[in-house]
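ENTRY TYPE: paired fold submission
RECORD: A
CONTENT: sequence, then structure tokens
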Amino acid sequence: MIWPVILPAVKFLWLVLLAYWLFGALKAKPARQRESTAASLLRTALTVSVFLFLFSPVARAGWFGARFIPRSGATSLSGLVLTAAGVALAIWSRYVLGQNWSAAVTLKHSHELIRKGPYARIRHPIYSGVILGLIGTALVIGEWRALLAVAALSLSWLVKARKEEKLLAREFGEAFEEHRAHTGMFWPRF
């Protein structure tokens, strides 16, 4: 059976993203303007809770552990591919964003409006990558709790993305409005 090999591979991919995320935070520019610590901590706690809920066997109680899709090698392999693609997109996006990245809604000193790489078509490709990866992980896990995790994190990051866009619109004015007109929030606009 392929599933016992795929689930550890999925977990490994998420750990790679976490390690890159933490390493990258060391090189970020200092913040000039930042959301409240409480808002940032709440979102971080929600993100950590989502992943704990996703991978903890304790969370399989009741309907959370019921399957929404039958387990199969094809489904598991498809989920692994989507998880890998999502993690790769998130890492690439984080790399292109460079020192302008922050886990919180933040404006950096000498903040730049990045419009290259994945940002040429998507305004929030890190979130897109994580959401795509979560969808893939949901296929691997195949339980309703995984879909709940995708929905919870997607909603949280939609709220965060809207806050970021208000800040960027204020900072970059017409340049950001032109960027918004040619890109999708989470999915590419061609």
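RECORD: B
CONTENT: sequence, then structure tokens
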Amino acid sequence: MSICHEADLPAYFPEMAAALGAAYALAERVADAVPLLMQALAQATAMQRVDDMVLCCLSLGEAHLLAGRQAYALRLLGDIAARREPPEAAPAADHYRQALARAEILGMRPLQAHCHRGFGTLYARIGQREQAHAALSTAVELYRAMEMSLWLPQAEAALAQMA
């Protein structure tokens, strides 16, 4: 990873960080794994590198599970089911519901926003436009309130497609 930084090769960072983050998680160094994987996922998302996003999500899901953060793992399961071809709508919605319920109980507002975005994306894929609009609107409101500038434009763009 230091070579990526020193040689100014940001395209390789998500892949290297995903591998290192997975190693940290397996070594039960979750406090090191999660921030690194979140940074890698954000960079892979910004560069629209789907393969790297998948690597980061898988490693991040495992790290959250090892850390006892089942709500994040449930959201990841929802994302996986929602992105299948064709989408597995019922399991995806069930996982999002469970993750959202836990996030609300625990006051995990960023996760709540991500769950609403997941619902919105799922509903849009299966043609439920009204539900998609409502879920994405909620996600946009939460992202704005928390000033989550990485995720806000994505949610706004998905919402604009519903108009």
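NOTES ON RECORD B: The mean pLDDT is 89. The CA atoms of residues 74 and 98 lie 7 Å apart.
STATUS: closed
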